[in-house]
Structures are given as C-alpha cells and as structure tokens.
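quick one before i forget lol
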Amino acid sequence: RYTMKLIKKKFLVIGGSSGTGKAVAEMAFNMGNEVILTSRQWAKATSVAKQIGDTVTGMQLDINDESAVHS
C-alpha cells in the first residue's frame, strides 16, 4: 500500500476562497505546506490567503476564461 506524504509540498487550490476549497487550503497550510489559492475575485483570494497564513498566496483565476488559464 502506498501512502502519499503531503508535508512540505506546494498545493494549488482552485476555488480556494470559500467552501471545500478553503477547507483544503487551510488543511494544507496546517500540515506545513505552501499554498496557492485561486478565486475569480482577486480581493477575496488575497483576503482569505492572509486569514489562513503566511505561506498562503491568493491569486485571481477564472478557469472558465481560457486566455486566463494559459497566461
């Protein structure tokens, strides 16, 4: 049986400013990981990132916008 070690990793959490995404971002941070969380709203992403912790970065990303995903 293989167990994945999820400590000292980098997490990208799409939709990380609320709900399940926020919970995953918080869990990853609490396990000692660096987290990048995204939201369609820059202000919300950065605000939530600051609330969670110092190794969390908030970024604006709308995955429905193909040009934004490729940049």
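fyi The mean pLDDT is 92.
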